[in-house]
Amino acid sequence: MKILSIIISYNFSRWIRPCLDSLMQSETPTDILVVDNASSDNSVAIIRSEYPQVRIIENKDNSGFGHANNIGFQIALQEGYDFVLLLNQDAWIDKDLLGVLTRLSDEFNDFGILSSVHLTGDRKDIDKGSPGEYILKDQTKTDLIEVPFVNAAIWLIPVQALKKAGGFSPLFQHYGEDVDFINRMHYHGFKIGYCPYVCGCHDRAKRITTKSMVRRATAVYCLTLWADINQSLLSATTQCFKCCFHHLGKSIMKREWEGASYFLKILMKFLTHFRTIYKERGNARKNGIDFIKNIRRAYDLIPF
Fold it and tell me: For residue 45, which phi and psi values (nearest 5 degrees)?
């Protein structure tokens, strides 16, 4: 059994040691690939000095989370790996996680993404937006719990599922990739699940959220509605534009002119790129593996 752990890094130095050390200490061995998106700190130098066994790909610029992961997916397919583990740079795993999740994947082969409980960095709470709660193994008879969504901080993906559902869509440059990917997993007949008695940590509690970040997240959500191939083109388009107009109107009612201007620009961008979005929906329906075999940079559909 071969596992490739993929980490997309950008100014990674703060988390390098807990992240990479957790993979080194895993009871189930894994190869490690770091795809660096043009860090401006000393991340690459630290990895080369302290972790010579880690493979590094240095992108010349920040090409986005999905694009960088597709590079790792391509290597996994070309080199015959059985699983890929997607691990955020600000995340780390317990030593038994890989062994448990790969065993469960072999037992429940209709699951395309398996994850664990996501704890906060200090292990005192469940990470916001993560499913379920941590339960000791002897307190539960359920090994794998099906959920509609789990964020991409810790994902184990069987390569066989990856071959069918494909990689990350170029419609998403930053955020939204995980929602779209899970939508396509569902379209191709796979379930999403997590094991309640294995853990990883996601250290993001200190992130600062600004109004511009909230607006951007809303615009990305609108795009995920349009890209959802589980919906007809008419239904998906209607939901997307309804969402955009709702937030445009809400901004106008509150006299938040900066927000109104932003959502007006989003609507214009979506209209301008209608054919692009239509084309990528078709690519995802036919064979999402094209996103890996012919890696393309993400479209700049959502302005910062």
Answer: -65, -40
Residue 181 has pLDDT above 70, yes or no: yes
Give domain 3-202's CATH superfamily: Spore Coat Polysaccharide Biosynthesis Protein SpsA; Chain A (3.90.550.10)
Q: Which of 192, 174, 18 has the alpha carbon at shortest distance from 89?
A: 18
Residues in the chain: 304
187: phi then psi, degrees, rounded to nearest 5? -60, -40
Angle between helices 16-24 and 43-50 in degrees, nearest 10: 30
d(CA 280, CA 23) in angstroms, rounded, equals 35
| Segment 59-97, tens digit of pLDDT | 988 988 999 999 999 999 999 999 999 999 999 999 999
For the chain, how big is the Rg over CA atoms in Å?
19
Residues sharing a CB contact under 8 Å with residue 173, sequence separation 6 or more, in sequence order: 64, 65, 66, 67, 298, 299, 300, 301, 302
Q: Domain residues of the chain, as ranges?
A: 3-202, 211-289
Cα gap 172→299, rounded to integer Å: 7
Beta-carbon contacts of 181 under 8 Å, excluding residues fewer than 6 positions away, are: 152, 165, 168, 169
Could you tell me if 73 and 292 are in contact, meaning their C-beta atoms sit under 8 angstroms apart?
yes
Strands 31-36 and 91-93: unpaired
The Cα–Cα gap between 19 and 167 comes to 23
**Which tens digit of pLDDT belongs to each residue from 110-123?**
999 999 999 988 88
| 50 neighbors 76 (Cβ within 8 angstroms) | no
Contact 146, 167 (CB under 8 A): no
Which residues 6+ apart lie within 8 Å of 270 measured at CB?
Answer: 222, 223, 226, 240, 241, 244, 277, 301
Annotate 124-139 with b (16+ C-beta within 10 A) or e (fewer).
Answer: eebbeebbbeeeeeee
What percentage of the chain reaches a pLDDT higher than 70? 96
